[in-house]
Structures are given as structure tokens and as C-alpha cells.
Amino acid sequence: MYTLPFLFLVSGLLSAAIYAVSTWTPLMALVFRDLQSPGALYFVHLFMLGGALMIAFGATYQLLSVVLGREIWSRKLGFVHYAFFALGTILLLVAFLNFRPPDIAFAATLVWISVLLFAVNVGMTMGLAKKWDAVIFSVAGATFFLVMAATLGWLMGLSLAGWIKLPHLTPILLAHMWFAGVGWFGLLISGFSYKLLSMFYLAHGMHLWTSALWFLSGFFGGFSFFIAGPGRIWLVGPLLLGLASLGYALHVRQIQSARNKNNPGPGIQLAVRLNVLLPALSLLILVLSGWLLREKPGHETAVRWVALMIGAYLLGWVGLTILAYLSKIFPFLWWTARYGQRVGQGRVPTVNQLLNETWTQRLLRLVFALTFSTVPQLMDKYSIEGIPPRLLPASSAGCS
Fold it and tell me: Which residues form a coiled coil (predicted)?
């Protein structure tokens, strides 16, 4: 069983490393010039698909087994899912770099199929649960939003290739981003946090209502982009997200208050700080982003602010929280693979004995510093010299 999560986690970490190197290249400029340029799409999907989503798949397979106390429904289907997703992601990134719409559509189809395979595997596994709690509900809701985000991305890929016609791409793009960022990652991370924090703090108790607010936020926030009119309805999603973030932060504080273990490790401590502070920040990011997009469409400063805010949410909360939990999950998987068969047959070191918490803490601090090291530069006017014209926005390419 542990080979499957390992496969996803190692692949995700490799993609995250490639992404980290890419942040210091001129390609980063495209994210702040035009979010829909081929170069920006490559950059965003390298992080979201190759890094964050790949790691999230591996963590879900592992943690769902822990929560349910049984293996996933089909390990073979999990490997098929990995093959489709890995191949689709690689082809999609190459297609973005070469800007070949038919290839983009084909690769998007592979990614979409892989998400459906994941949804079937997870759905059948959750169907075996004796009782649904906040964790299971969160995984189910997050999987629903992942399917929605993948479907919208697939449709946009088909439209880009000219295989289908979509009347308006902007609301589809915004809903795609909301379903992925808030619906999938937000609900999945908050749901698993209830289990992980309770486990590592030796505290107990979960609140379903905060998970329900996350779900409602993702649902109304995503579908509000398709509703025509003055646009006031779009506030429902961010407002529900604010309530969910507040309830989530309070619940994290309750878990800390009820703890029977004072030091859960540097990774969990970082996750707690992020869980308390950044969900509230995400509300400000998303509300202000919506205001800028509606009040100043196409304005260069507004676009850079929107890119900065989306990046802060995805990197600051989603990315760092995933890495914080991974500092606990990955060593456990490695220990199980190496020592699991030897338990009860002699002296076996514990996971904590093998970990150097000082170095773990230093590594997390380094990742945290590197993540935000580019923030002072994000509002500057990046030079786009040296970037191939096919990766530039249409306006910039035409001027070169």
C-alpha cells in the first residue's frame, strides 16, 4: 500500500523543486503580465498539478486508509490513476511551453480522466466507512470540487483547440480557480487537519459544521461566477469562506487547548500557525481580488495585485501547509516501508528517534523564507526579455 503514496509524494516533491527553480527565471514575469498567457499557465499548472495536487493525491490515499482503518478500494486503480495523471501533466506542461492547442486539449483529457479515476477510487473507499465524520465529509466534498475544477479545465482545453465552443471563458476560468483553490485544497486541508492535529496533539473531537461552511463556500463561490446580473451574489462565497475560516481557526485553538502533548514537532507547529492566521488572510485575498477584477478590469496594477494575492493564498497557505504536514507523513511512510515488517521482532527505532527536529525546523524555516523571498519583487515591472514570443501575452508578443 505504501508504494502508491510514495510514488505520488516523490513525484510531487520533484515537481515542487522544479517549480522553486523556475521562480527565479524570467518566466515568472508572465504570471504578473497576463494570467492567461501560455507561459503563466505553464507556471501555475507546474505548481498546482505537478506539485500540490500530486502530493495531495498521495496524502489522500495514505490518510484515508488511516482514517478508515483499511486499504483503499483498489490499489491497481490507484496506479492507473498515477499513470494517467503523470503523463497528462507532463504533456500539458510541454504543450503550454510549445503552445499547441490540440496537444493542450489531449493532455487536459488525460488529466480529466485521471481525476475521474481518483474520484471513483476514493468514492468506493468512503462507501465502506461505517460512520461519516468531519474528515470523511471533507474528503467527499473536496473530491466533488476537484472533479468540477478538472471538468472546467478540460472544457477550456477543448475550447482552446477549437473542438467545442464556449460562450464566455472568464467565468469558467474564475470558477475553475475557485473550485480548485477553495473547494478542493481548502476543504481537503481543513478536513485532514482535524484528524492530523488531533492525532499529533493527542486531542479529540471534530466539528462537522466548519466543514459544511467550507463546502458551501466552495459551492456558492464557484457557481456564482455563472450568474448574470449586477454581481452582488459573488460575495456569498467569500463571506461563507470567512465564517468557515473563523470557525476553523477556533477549532484549531480548541484542539491545542485540549492537547495532551506539548510538542508535536516543528512541522505540526508550523501548520497550526498557518491554520490560525492564513485562512483569515485568504478571505481578504479573495474578496479584494474579486473587487479588483470587477472595478479595474485589465488594469496592470490590478492584475499584479490579483496575481500577488492568489500566489499568497496558494503558496502561503496551501503550499506551506502541505509541506508542513509532509514533514510528518513522509518520514512515517519511509519508516513503515523499512521497519514495518520488523515490529515485534526485536528493537526497532521509532520515527521520532530517526528524525532530527532541529534540522527539520531549519529546513521548514528555509522553505518559508524562500517562498516569500520574491514578494518584494512581485509588484515590480518584470523584464520579459529573453522569453520566447510564443509564451508571451498577445499584446506583448505583438510589440516584440
Answer: none
- Average pLDDT on 251-265 reads 74
Find the length of the chain.
400
The grid coordinates of residue 271 equal 501548520
Looking at residue 384, its pLDDT comes to 39
Cα-based distances in Å from 265 to 90, 138, 290, 357: 35, 25, 37, 7
Question: How distant, in Å, are the alpha carbons of 94, 326, 350, 394 from that of 118?
Answer: 23, 20, 32, 36
Write down the pLDDT at residue 2.
62
The C-alpha angle 287, 293, 297, rounded to 5 degrees, equals 165
Residue with cell 492507473: 80
What radius of gyration, in Å, describes the C-alpha atoms of the chain?
Answer: 21
d(CA 314, CA 182): 10
Q: Which residues, other chains included, contact 33 with Cβ-Cβ below 8 Å and sequence gap of 6+?
A: 40, 303, 382, 384, 392, 393, 396
Residue 366, in any domain of the structure: yes
Task: Say yes or no to pLDDT of 166 above 70.
Answer: yes
With cell 513525484, the residue in question is 11
**Residue 185, Cβ neighbours under 10 Å: how many?**
27
| Domain boundaries, position 238 | 3-336+352-379
| Gap between the Cα atoms of 275 and 185, Å rounded | 13
Give percent of the chain with pLDDT exceeding 70.
66
The domain total for the chain is 1
Q: How far apart are CA 110 and CA 198, in angstroms?
A: 37
Q: Residue 111 and residue 105: Cα distance in Å, rounded?
A: 10
Measured CA to CA, the distance from residue 241 to residue 289 in angstroms comes to: 14
Going by C-alpha positions, the residue among 75, 25, 76 that lies closest to residue 46 is: 25
Q: 280-307 burial, b for 16+ CB within 10 Å, e for fewer?
A: ebbbebbbebbbbbeeeeeeeebbbbbb
Does residue 388 lie in a domain region?
no
- Which triple of cell numbers denotes residue 314? 496558494
Q: Are 236 and 224 within 8 A, CB to CB?
A: yes
CA distances from 5 to 12, 56, 63, 69 (A): 10, 9, 10, 16
CATH, residue 8 = 1.20.210.10
d(CA 312, CA 319): 9
